[in-house]
Amino acid sequence: MRVVIGLCLLAPFAAMLWVGSYAKVDPQFIGIPFFYWYQMLWVLISTALTMVAYKLWQRDQRARRGGAGR
To answer: TM spans, by residue (predicted)?
Structure first.
């Protein structure tokens, strides 16, 4: 569970640090160069992944508390 949480939190960093993968103009989206819309897309993806990681963390903490009392 914690590995999945870590991957959810590290994926946006890896995507943004690998600049060579998105340092280009084409393909454009509604006139916006790829460089810009790719980064804005990752803002949304990062939000979703952070939310997933938080929910998984909550579930993991509940499971640990529930198992410790037995």
So the answer is: 39-57
Q: How far apart are CA 55 and CA 9, in angstroms?
A: 12
Rounded Cα gap, residues 34 and 2, in angstroms? 33
Q: What is the pLDDT of residue 69?
A: 54
Q: What is the pLDDT of residues 4-46, one digit of tens each?
A: 999 999 999 998 899 888 888 889 889 999 999 999 999 999 9
Block residue for tokens 């393909």: 27
Domain ranges for the chain: 2-60
Specify the length of the chain in residues.
Answer: 70
Give the 3-state secondary structure of 10-46: HHHHHHHHCHHHCCCCCCCECCECHHHHHHHHHHHHH
Instruction: From 13, 5, 11, select the one nearest 52 (Cα to Cα).
Output: 5
